FAD dependent oxidoreductase (Cycloclasticus pugetii), 360 residues
Amino acid sequence: MTPKKKVEFLIIGQGLAGSLLGWRLIQQGHSVLLLDPCLTHTASRTAAGLINPVTGKRLVKTDHVEQYLTAAKELYAELANFFGLTFLHEREQVRLFQSEAELNQWNKRKNQAEYAPFLAERFNAKDKKYLKETSLGGFKQQQCAYLDTVALLDHLRDFFLHQGCFIKAQIDLSELNISSSSVEWHDHTADKIIFCDGYHLQYNPWFSWLPLQPVQGDILTLKTDHPLPNEIVQFGKWLLPLANGQLKLGASWQWQPLDEQPNEKAALELLDACYPYFPHLRQAQRLEHNVGIRPGTRDKQPFLGQHPEQSKLLVFNGFGSKGSLLIPWHAERFLRYLTHAEPLPTSADINRYTHDYFTR
């Protein structure tokens, strides 16, 4: 009998979560095997990779965003140095006031010290060519960026293939043989298995109890002959200018159905939102209409940790629409948890839910 190929960690999913965790484990000398079906309509590949420290109608700063930004910049710089290609693009962002209430909220936030690094000056309608005279104007946001997720994931897949630690496969969970000492899949055996497969977690018999709240989103890629702004523009939706007259326009939010099918109604919603500011986009060429399902969670915090009854099963998931920002820092915490038994962040540890479903 041929002996099974042994690795420390079997990672299910080569989206941003699985890829960055796999990269960090390999850099620390650990053996991994990643499995992924290589679909194009995943959340990680559909996402524009926007990093925005202050979001929502109430202009709320993401908790601990300073440490998340530091970790993200460090990891993406490390990857850029290794591959010789920039993936994280820092870009000024402007947000257009949609109501007097938003303007009042900005006036409140701009006087709060903790928001000073992220909220810059206000501008008036006359300062932007795409604003009408009756517009309330907007304000500049700092420390924003976007991550070229497709390029990064493609390069990481090539790296994993070269390392002999990637297999294109749609895993059937019934094929897993789980014992107290290992996890077996076909001719491979691993010390632990880590599920990083996004919204598919809701179908996982071991982790379906976690309160995942997946939401589908549509993003358009357009091409125009007209000049585009240099900055990312937020106006209830967002516009991300790219090279060669291309831009991304997003994003919709759809809770049902989760069918991964492009929604023309959602596309028209995106276009109708941008036309008042960029009417020339009525003549733009639609290059792509992509859709993905974000793995959101009930409390807006990710899922990290070990199954309460099956020590070989772990989860690293639930980063929602902020994966580009959140995953690098959490990957480092999870790495230390796996290799040095350091405690997980309480806010992300799945133990916060185990008392609802398991009795000790």
In short: The helical segments are 16-27, 43-46, 65-83, 100-109, 149-162, 264-274, 323-340, 351-357.
